[in-house]
Write a structure and sequence with these properties.
Number of helices of chain A: 9
Mean pLDDT of chain B: 82
Strand content of chain B: 5-15%
Number of strands of chain B: 6
Largest sheet of chain A: 3 strands, antiparallel
CATH architecture of the largest domain in chain B: Orthogonal Bundle
Radius of gyration of chain A: 35 Å
Number of domains of chain A: 2
Oligomer: heterodimer
Radius of gyration of chain B: 20 Å
Chain lengths: ~240, ~220
């Protein structure tokens, strides 16, 4: 799968539409619906080609645009409840309003960035001066505090958590190969079954290492593994003896 | 008898000592002075802080006062405090906040309609940050929650009160520039005040930002 990067992100279909309108230097009150619909659909197809999930809101808007476009093309039907101009006017109202809120969000961002630079002093904590004050606790505020604490704790824990844990290797493949070789020599021509290699109290780790060791041995020292059908125990023989015969 | 300058000094001490915001009524009570005198002294303090020789500013949120460092000096302060760089709100959260701020009290569904996308996660983030809160219920099927902004919102955005927010119409494209300029002029004439200057500076910056944005597009 190709690795796709989209440089522009949109907060939603309205955001995308406003972007298209600005790109084309179109008057928002006079949108050439066919042109914008085509560009909108093109953008969505581009995302689909890039294996990106297209949120359902974008698809709904595409349907809305197509409806306006289709109705504008068809001859006017007197009985019809909504005429295409109404549909388009509704969309324009929505776009104009959204655009204003977008402007406000930019304005808020600027102000927020300035205020982030102000540092407030925390009240000093003086334990011996604590008076008993009857508390009126707003349950929502308490919930809020608790959530913030949890969030903070999580962040602290994350900061403290080691990036990686290194666990001592209890079993290694080399030792296991030596062990299996010895068992096979003792077993002679009959070989052993895989289950015989696994002691009853064996850990999951050791099972994995045993299997890895076997695979390694198949590759390097010539073992023959026989299994009658899938998912059952298998028999292990030393290839060497067969060669000697 | 304490004169106004002295009173300003006492207020500065009280605000520094408290750390948290102190309301005007609380100040009057602990200073045992009438509101008018406290307000007058507060003005002196405000004027004093405007000077470049001071690194502190007086922040007013609704009727409570608090001291903070001047944002323009942050570059120097962070050198010593090694504060972790604070991150701002995401685009989705800012859009949602803008809608709630200007349309409050408002339901989540109405926010969704204005943005054209679901806003539940953005609202949750704003709730977690304490920037919006439950402002009652709409008497409609399902009695949906109405959201409104909090004091923390005012503090985050540097507004004294909701009334200080520019009119909604200021942001509509046709009027934006002229309104901003009007706002700049009227305020710098009538109120040569630090917070007002700051606002003017911000507005200027917003206009420049908008121009940059437009140019980029």
């Amino acid at each position: 799968m190709a690795y796709a990067v989209s440089l522009e992100t949109y907060e939603g279909p309205l955001d995308l539409l406003i972007n298209l309108i600005q790109k084309n230097k179109i008057d928002i009150y006079n949108i050439p619906i066919a042109k914008i619909t085509n560009q909108y659909l093109l953008q969505i197809r581009t995302w689909q080609d890039m294996d990106m999930d297209v949120a359902s809101e974008f698809v709904v808007m595409a349907a809305r645009l197509l409806e306006i476009k289709a109705k504008a093309l068809l001859p006017k039907n007197e009985d019809e409840q909504e005429d295409p101009e109404d549909l388009q006017a509704k969309l324009v109202r929505q776009l104009v309003e959204y655009k204003i809120f977008k402007e406000i969000s930019h304005y808020f961002k600027t102000r927020e960035q300035i205020e982030l630079c102000a540092i407030y002093r925390d009240p000093e904590y003086i334990p011996q001066n604590i008076e008993e004050i009857p508390l009126v606790i707003d349950p929502y505020a308490l919930e809020q505090c608790f959530k913030q604490l949890l969030f903070q704790k999580e962040e602290e824990l994350e900061a403290l958590a080691p990036a990686q844990k290194i666990i001592r290797e209890l079993f290694n493949i080399e030792e296991k190969i030596a062990e299996i070789t010895e068992i096979l020599v003792q077993a002679g021509v009959d070989g052993v079954s895989f289950s015989e290699l696994l002691r009853p109290e064996i850990t999951r780790e050791e099972v994995v290492v045993t299997l890895q060791a076997l695979l390694e041995m198949v590759k390097t020292s010539g073992l023959r593994l026989l299994q009658n059908r899938v998912f059952i125990d298998f028999q292990i023989h030393r290839e060497v003896e067969n060669d000697e015969q | 008898m304490m004169n106004s300058d002295e009173l300003a000094g006492v207020i500065e001490g009280v605000l520094f000592g408290a750390g948290d915001g102190v309301s005007l009524t609380e100040l009057c009570r602990c200073l045992d002075k009438p509101i008018s005198e406290v307000q007058f002294a507060m003005e002196i303090l405000k004027q004093d802080y405007q000077s470049k020789a001071r690194g502190i500013r007086l922040v007013q949120i609704k009727d409570s006062y608090q001291l903070s460092t001047k944002p323009e000096y942050y570059g120097y302060i962070k050198e010593i405090t090694r504060h972790q760089e604070k991150t701002g709100l995401s685009r989705a959260a800012l859009e949602t906040l803008a809608i709630i701020a200007y349309r409050q009290p408002i339901t989540r569904l109405a926010v969704d309609e204005l943005r054209g996308v679901s806003s539940s996660s953005a609202i949750q983030r704003l709730l977690d940050r304490g920037l919006v809160c439950d402002g009652g219920r709409l008497e409609a099927p399902g009695r949906p929650i109405l959201y409104k902004t909090t004091k923390a919102f005012l503090k985050t955005m540097g507004f004294t009160s909701l009334k200080e927010m520019p009119e909604f119409e200021v942001f509509s494209q046709e009027k934006q520039e002229s309104f901003s300029l009007e706002l700049l002029n009227s305020e710098s004439q009538n109120n040569p005040d630090s917070s007002e200057d700051l606002l003017a500076g911000m507005l200027e910056k917003t206009i420049v930002d908008a121009q940059i944005l437009e140019a980029a597009q």
